[in-house]
Amino acid sequence: MLSRAARKLASCPSASMGSVGIPRDQRLLGPLLEGPSTPVAYFFLKGRFAFGPSRLSLLRKNLPMNGTMLQSSTTTLWVNEIFYSIQGESTFAGKPCIFIRLAGCNLRCTYCDTTYAFSEGVRMGIEEILNQIRSYPCQLVEVTGGEPLLQHPVLLLLRRLCDLEYTVLLETSGALDIACVDPRVHRIMDLKCPSSGECHRNRFANLEHLTARDEVKFVIGTREDFEWAQSQLQGSWTQRVGAILFSPVFGVLEPAQLAAWILEKGLPVRLQIQLHKFIWGPNVRGV
Ligand code: SF4
Known about the structure:
Strand order of the largest sheet: 6-4-5-7-8-9-10-11-12
CATH superfamily: Aldolase class I
Catalytic activity: 6-carboxy-5,6,7,8-tetrahydropterin + H(+) = 7-carboxy-7-carbaguanine + NH4(+)
Low-confidence stretches: 1-68
Number of domains: 1
Helix content: 10-25%
Distance between the termini: 41 Å
Number of strands: 12
GO molecular function, one term: S-adenosyl-L-methionine binding
Mean pLDDT: 82
Order of helices and strands: HEEEHEEEHEHEEEHHEHEH
Pfam family, one: Radical_SAM
CATH topology: TIM Barrel
EC number: 4.3.99.3
Number of helices: 8
CATH architecture: Alpha-Beta Barrel
Structural class: alpha/beta
Largest sheet: 9 strands, mixed
Bound molecules: iron/sulfur cluster
Pathway: Purine metabolism; 7-cyano-7-deazaguanine biosynthesis
């Protein structure tokens, strides 16, 4: 059964057979990439926009991990921005890093600081993306969003980056399946806390797939969030995962307050601040 958002799209006069063609040079993606209120997944395959559970399983079948169905020379992604900066989060914080921000997100977190990525993007070929990042003197790359896993061909981009011996980070909300991501990628996955408004979208099955290469991040805005995050620190994944990050919502919860709570409870987690916001300010894009 299609979600309300998918039904709305299906009833659009320009839609047919459950898919919508996207103008090749469309700069603003508008509602096509704006998040639905239900957990429908959006994927792009060879310029087509597909949705709904049946399409999803079809696309999965047609996109093996070895990428034989999709060629990097002909496959495209909607890219919001590519830039070179200092990594502000995760255990890689402080290192020079190339960021590839993909467009679109299926969530609407209350504290989101990249809302511009919901609907702004240009379509770029995977080889075009790789050529652009080769111009930076850096071997660390993060693919982020928005929600990068919404665009299924991102799996091919991640694999190509690994093949080129980049150290590859993937930032994901944790609401979509992470199992098919190349195992060489460092997955930095959120578990959404209550004040995000998207706690019900956490895909807890993802925890089974985490390894020592991966990191789990809790973005904490309130004491309730902190206590919820603390209550999640159980199960074998906490021993397997490379790091558990507690990050205060910038401008909402003081890092010193979160530090005090962590110390009070003696939690085996890492306090993380968004370093780039302290260096360049909270509203500067492309850093
Ligand atoms: S998942 Fe990330 S990009 Fe999407 S709404 Fe939440 S904070 Fe914003």
